[in-house]
Amino acid sequence: MTHSARQGWSLSWGFWAIAVLVPVSFLVVFFAWPVAGLISRGFVIDGVFSLDGLSAVLSSPRTWRIIGQTLALAVAGTLASVLLGVPGAYLLYRTRFRGRAFARALVSVPFVLPTVVVGVAFRSLFGASGPLGWLGLDESFAAIMLALVFFNYSVIVRTVGALWSRLDPRADEAARVLGASPVRVFCTVTLPAIAPAVLSGASLVFLFCATAFGIVMVMGGVGFGTIETEIWYQTTQLLDLPAAAALSIVQLVVVVAALLVAARARTRAEHALRLRGDDTTEQPWRAGRDLVPTLVTALVVLGLLGLPMINLVVRSFITADGWGWRNYALLAGTGEGSITVPVWTAALNSLTIAAQAAALAVLLGALVSLVASRRPRSRRLAGGVRLLDAVFMLPLGVSAVTVGFGFLITLNRPPFDLRSSPILIPIAQAVVALPLVVRTLLPVLRAIDPRQREAAASLGAPPGRVLATIDGALALRGLGLAVGFAFATSLGEFGATSFLARPDHPTLPVVIFRLIGRPGADNFGMALAASVVLAVLTAAVMAAAELVRPKEAEL
C-alpha cells in the first residue's frame, strides 16, 4: 500500500472515529446521564439504595390503572391510524390525479404540528362551548384517541405509501382475472406485500401514542392520564422520585420493545423497497376502482384533519364583542396576568431556540446517518452499526419530561453546570429532534449503491473525496427535509421545555399551556390565537421542507 493510500485510510478511520464518538458522547451526556440520574435518584432513599419505592408504586392500583390507560390508548390509536391510513396510502401513492402533491403536503402537516396546538384545537372542538360539545367527548378517551390519530395519520400514509407505490400491479390483475373479488385480492395479494411497511408504521405510531404528553396534558383533565403525564405529576406535584423512577422503568420497557419491533419491521420494509427498485408503478385514478379509498381519505382529511384546525382558526376570531382581531391584539400583552412576557416575545424565543436546536440536531444526525448507512462486511462491525442506529432512536420514546427533569438534577455541577445557561433548552430540544433527523437522512444514504463508492475508489479517489462527492452530494438532497423536521419539532417541543424554560424567557408552547389552564375569556382567546400563530409557523417550515423532499426519505 502506498504512502498516500495509507494516509487516506488513516484519515478515513479518523473521520469515522469522530463521526461515532461525537454523537455518542452527546447522547451519553445529555440523554443517558440525565435519564439514569433521575432513575437512580428514585432508588436512593435517605442515601441508601432501596426497592421500597419501586415495590410501593408497582403494588398501587393507580399505577396499573395508568399503565392500562396508556396501553389502551396506544393500541386504539394505532389500530385507528392503520385502518384510516392504509386507504390514504393507496390513494396518495398508488394513484395519480391532479393536486396529489398538494394533498400529500396537507396530510404531512399534522405530524409536525406541536402537540399543545393539537390539544387546544381538539379541546376547542369538543369542549362545552365548542361546535361538537353536544357529543360529550370533552376530556374523554375517544377525543384523545382522535387527536392522536390526527397526529399520526401521516406516519402510516407515508410508510405504507412508499412501498405500495412500487408494487407490481400484475399480481393483482392476475388474481382478478382468475375471479378473485377486490377484497380477496387485497387480503391475499396486496396486504402480504405491504405488510412490512404496515408493521413498521404501526410500531412507530404505537410508540408515539404511548409516549404522548402535550395532547394528554391539555385534553385529559383530572380523569385521564398516561405514564408520561404521571411521571410529570409525580415529579412536579408530589416530588415522589421513587414513583417517577418506577414509571420511567415501565416506560423504558415499552419503548425498547416497540423500538425493537420498529427496527425489525423497518429493515424488512427497506429490504422490500430495494428488491422492487426505484421505479414506481402508479396508476391513473379511476372512479369505479378508487371510489372507496377516495371517500375514506376525503372524510379523514376534511373531518379529522381539517375540522379541528378550521375550528381553531375560526374561534380565534370570536370575542365577547363578536368577530374581530382582539385575541391577536392581546398577544402583545400578558393577558390577565397569566404569563410574564408578551406572547410575541415568547414566539421570538421559540424561533431563536428552534434554530439553535435544529442546527445541533442536523449536525449530529448527519454524522450518525453516515455511520449507520455503512454496510461493513465484518459481522461485528455490522452489529455495531445496527446498535448505533437503535440507540439513537431511544429519545423517540423516553419521556421528554424525564429528560427535562433529569437535566435539572444532573447538569447542576461542574463540568456541566448548565442550569443558568441559555444553551440548555436548545440541547434538550436537539435530543428530541435527533431521531427524526436520522430517520430522514438515513434512507437517503442507504439508497446509495455501494458499487458507486467502490468505482470511485478504484479510479483513485481518496476516501475523503468519495465521501464528499457521493455520500455528501446525496445527503444534501435530504438536508432540507431534515432541517425542517428538526426546526418544527423544536418549535413545538413542550415536555422537556416545560421544566427548563425560565419564567422570564418562556417558549410559545409553554405560554399556550399556561393560558389554556387559567380561567378567563381573554386567556382562552389568547391561547387560541397563539396556537394559530404556532401552527402557521410550523406549517410554513414543513411546507418549505416538502418542496425539497427526496423520494428516499419516505420511511
Automatic annotation (TrEMBL):
InterPro entries: MetI-like, MetI-like_sf. It comes from the Bacteria. SUPFAM superfamilies: MetI-like. It is found in: Cell inner membrane; Cell membrane. CDD domains: TM_PBP2 (cd06261). One of its GO terms (cellular component) is plasma membrane. Residues 67-262, 347-545 form the ABC transmembrane type-1 domain. GO terms for biological process: transmembrane transport. The chain crosses the membrane at residues 12-33, 66-93, 105-126, 141-165, 205-227, 239-263, 291-314, 353-373, 385-411, 423-445, 466-488, 524-545. The keyword Transmembrane applies. Its main location: membrane. It is a multi-pass membrane protein. Gene3D superfamilies: MetI-like. Keywords: Cell inner membrane, Cell membrane, Membrane, Transmembrane, Transmembrane helix, Transport. Belongs to the binding-protein-dependent transport system permease family. This is Binding-protein-dependent transport systems inner membrane component. It comes from Micropruina glycogenica.
